[in-house]
Design a protein that fits this description.
alpha+beta; 6-stranded antiparallel beta sheet
């Protein structure tokens, strides 16, 4: 019911992921990232506990392959899970259990991983990884464009209803955490939200780190 892509930017140290699903509120259950650590994706028949566990293991110094082995050992129902881990160095690992739904596939590329289940075809993850690998610029834009490439390659067999975009950088909190939890066209709606958020993103970071020099909100009473 879900397809996703995770990536890092070695130049900025940013890490993040983009995800979409026919299920409601997919990002809240399936997408996890942490500054200076990496990204974890847990989908198919989802166990959200595996996301924070993966990040904790990455923070302890384990690489993506080692974390994936530990996740499989720790999860008694691993055959129902589809998992992805991308560490801060750009190494990735993916796993699809024997009970993964419908057509499922994964792909690993340079500084990225992609995967999905109940897909229209097995080419969708590779299309996302290829698009990410051959793109440049802002990580949030690259991730969302890769998700759009997955949709163009066929996406899910059925309609998507929710989508999200998560990016961590130098702050410990996400600098991009955008979600469309229920919509007839969630990926295009997420693109609209990102386009409106990006011009304001740096101002929100400044308000946290240097409020005395932060720009106003531009709303009545704070001109």
């Amino acid at each position: 019911m879900t397809f996703s892509v995770a990536g890092i930017c070695p130049d900025t140290g940013m890490v993040g992921c983009a995800i979409t699903s026919s299920s409601i509120c997919v990002t809240s259950r399936c997408a996890f990232a942490r500054s200076g650590t990496g990204v974890a994706l847990t989908q198919n028949i989802t166990n959200p506990d595996l996301g924070p566990l993966a990040l904790d293991l990455l923070a302890e110094g384990h690489n993506a392959e080692a974390v994936m082995e530990k996740l499989q050992a720790a999860e008694p129902h691993v055959q129902w899970r589809q998992l992805g881990v991308l560490d801060k160095d750009g190494s990735g690992a993916t796993f699809s259990g024997a009970e993964a739904l419908g057509i499922y596939a994964t792909a690993e590329g340079k500084n990225c991983i992609a995967m999905g289940n109940l897909l229209a075809n097995t080419d969708v993850p590779q299309a996302m990884a290829d698009h990410f690998e051959h793109s440049s610029g802002d990580l949030a834009d690259r991730l969302l464009a890769a998700l759009e490439a997955g949709l163009a390659a066929g996406g899910e067999l059925g309609p998507e209803h929710s989508a999200g975009l998560l990016v961590y950088g130098e702050p410990n909190w996400p600098i991009v955490d955008l979600r469309v939890d229920w919509h007839v066209s969630p990926i295009s709606e997420l693109r609209m939200v990102l386009n409106n958020y990006q011009p304001q993103m740096d101002a929100y970071i400044t308000r946290a780190t240097d409020p005395a020099n932060a720009e106003s909100y531009g709303v009545p009473g704070d001109e």
